[in-house]
Amino acid sequence: MLRLLRIAVVLALTALAADPGAAKDFKIFSGEPRLLVVHGYSTSFHWWAMLQRKIDRFRPGERKIEVSLAAKGGTPIAKWMDVDTGKPLAPWGEVVVPALRKKGARPAVVLAQQSLQWVYGDRDLGIAGSHDAKRIEAGADAIEKYVRLLQKDGADQVFVAMHIYKKPLEPEIGNERLALDEALGRGIARFHTGPDVWEPTSKLWPQAFADDKVHPNSIGAEVMAQLWFETLLEHDGAEVPAWSRREMESAIESEPLDLPRGRPR
After folding, report:
1. How many of the other CB atoms lie within 10 Å of CB of 235?
2. Can you tell me the distance from the alpha carbon of 222 to that of 205, in angstroms, rounded to the nearest whole number?
3. What does pTM read for this prediction?
4. What's the DSSP call for residue 95?
């Protein structure tokens, strides 16, 4: 038995040495190649490209950090996996697995902007408030399974943010952050909070939203890109450049563009 235990320890240490990025937290802006996979649905169809623009300006020259999109319309967490078993559904194999396989020798960091819609049954059912302990726990369980599934399929770090402001489904959408806080408190390795995109977009409704008042327009997308940019910089302990905040402020002051809601080609 002792001999088997020693063999198991040696194998584990060997695996960690072969893939140090998977064994511990690491900086995003280290100068080494990184793949950032934006995972979500229609609210993420545009800000990922704006984030790439900001990163390229922050680290000019040869692109070491690639931002890619792995999204599908109408697919919050409950449409990517079975929330009871944690097993992936068809879109996972079609979108997420191929995206993470592209990392090659680079560590992959998933930037997930997600939602708990359909986790509790009907789409409009959600967390009623801080007193709703049962649904907070169930939401945290779903988030934990989701994070662990991403890590199992190749994500070396995972950042999770919840949904932007969604007037038809409030206050349940805003309350999803309670489940995220619960999940973050469970001590899952290499799992970090993304930015709070709900509060800023709630203050900019309907200015930062498309004509349908649900999807983000060019203002909303720029705001999300900046919030994610700041989150990654803060993770590394780096200062947020003033020019990036000016970009966001200029976007808020400009005439908004109603962006396409289909997946970009």
Report:
1. 18
2. 14
3. 0.90
4. I
Q: How far apart are CA 152 and CA 63, in angstroms?
A: 27
Strands (E), 74-196: 108-113, 157-161, 191-193
Give the H or E element holding residue 11: helix 2-18
Which H/E stretch holds residue 36? strand 34-40
Q: How far apart are CA 150 and CA 96, in angstroms?
A: 8
Q: What is the pLDDT of residues 8-36, one digit of tens each?
A: 444 444 444 444 444 578 999 999 999 99
Question: Is 16:23 a contact under the CB 8 Å cutoff?
Answer: yes
How far apart CA 192 and CA 174 sit, in angstroms, is 19
Backbone angles phi, psi at 149, to 5 degrees: -70, -40
Q: Do the beta carbons of residue 223 and residue 248 sit within 8 Å?
A: yes
Going along the chain from its start, the domains and CATH numbers come out as 28-196 (3.40.50)
Q: What is the pLDDT of residues 180-236, one digit of tens each?
A: 999 999 999 999 999 999 999 999 999 999 999 999 999 999 999 999 999 999 999
- Sequence-distant (6+) residues with CB within 8 A of 140 are 179, 180, 182, 183, 186
Across the beta sheet with 34-40, the strand order is 65-71, 34-40, 108-113, 157-161, 191-193
Asked if 118 and 146 touch (Cβ cutoff 8 Å), the reply is no
